[in-house]
Amino acid sequence: MEQLFLPLTPAEPAESIPLPEVFHRAFRRMAMRRPAPEFKVEFRPFAGLRSTISLRGPSAVIHITDLLSGAPPIVLDALAEILLAQLFRRRASREARECYLAYTFQPAMRQRIEQARRERGSKRLLPPRGRHHNLEAIFAELNQKYFHGRLPPTRTGWSRRRSRGTLGHYDDAHRTIVITRWFDSRRVARELVEYVMFHEMLHIQFPTERQGHRRVMHSAEFRKAEKRFPKYKEALRHLQQLSGGAGSLD
């Protein structure tokens, strides 16, 4: 049974609540069967909506993105529960997850997140013209063929590492499509690279959505559009065979 989410009083001023106390309250509410660690919490200028928690001896060290420094107490309390659940392998309550996502999916907050990712982060990748496949040319061809040339200019490139886990990725903050350098090979047919590129281009057309307490990257509309790719099932099967079932497309 999920624990009841009893947040801090929304009217309570955020600056009056020490961050360690926020975590102590969440820890007590979750009824952990262990002594509470010493909570050491601070905001950090991360390049995006990232927060971390780890045990270091008797202490729990928590770094929270400074993008949440002005968040209401109820949101910080929800985040505390989520991070503690992650640390102690528990499941955060649905209420906590929905509260946190509702705040972070607000348009103004999304703009702050994307701005921080652009200003603080960097995207390091190899040029699109590889030894065997040219990603820039593939993007241009697919844009005309399937999107009527309507997708905005997008940076493309090969990953720096020959990853067999993440086969393709679209970064909306940097408007960049990265495909694993492992596919820049004569053994990999151009049609398969085209399918991976097509999948990532669909993320431009169908941005990530929020459904309740979940972030949905591949909506029903996304999946329907993906099946327009010629020999879609064959390409997907070939992709899984090539990666041994371990590869994924973000």
Provide a descriptive summary of the structure in words.
It is a single chain. This protein has 250 residues and is α/β, with parallel strands linked by helices. Helix content is 40%, strand content 17%. The chain is built from eight helices and nine strands. The strands form three sheets. Strands 4-6-5-9 form a four-stranded mixed sheet, with helices on one face. A three-stranded mixed sheet has the order 1-3-2, covered by helices on one side. Helix 1 packs across helix 2 (73-87), helix 2 crosses helix 3 (94-104) and helix 5 (135-147) crosses helix 6 (190-205).
Helix-strand layout with pairing:
Blueprint: H1 19-29, E1 38-44, E2 51-56, E3 59-65, H2 73-87, H3 94-104, H4 107-120, H5 135-147, E4 155-158, E5 166-171, E6 176-179, H6 190-205, E7 209-211, E8 214-216, H7 220-226, H8 232-243, E9 248-249
Parallel strand pairs: 1-3, 4-6, 5-9
Antiparallel strand pairs: 2-3, 5-6, 7-8
Q: What is the H/E string?
A: HEEEHHHHEEEHEEHHE
Could you state the CATH homologous superfamily of the largest domain?
Metalloproteases ("zincins"), catalytic domain
Strand content: 15-25%
Q: How are strands sequenced across the largest beta sheet?
A: 4-6-5-9
**Biggest sheet descriptor:** 4 strands, mixed
The average pLDDT score comes to 87
**Cα-to-Cα separation, first versus last residue:** 32 Å
Number of strands: 9
Q: Just give the CATH class of the largest domain.
A: Alpha Beta
> Uncertain runs with pLDDT below 50, 5 residues or more?
6-14
The helix tally amounts to 8
**How many discrete domains?**
2
Question: What's the CATH architecture of the largest domain?
Answer: 2-Layer Sandwich
Radius of gyration: 21 Å
Structural class: alpha/beta
Shape annotation: elongated
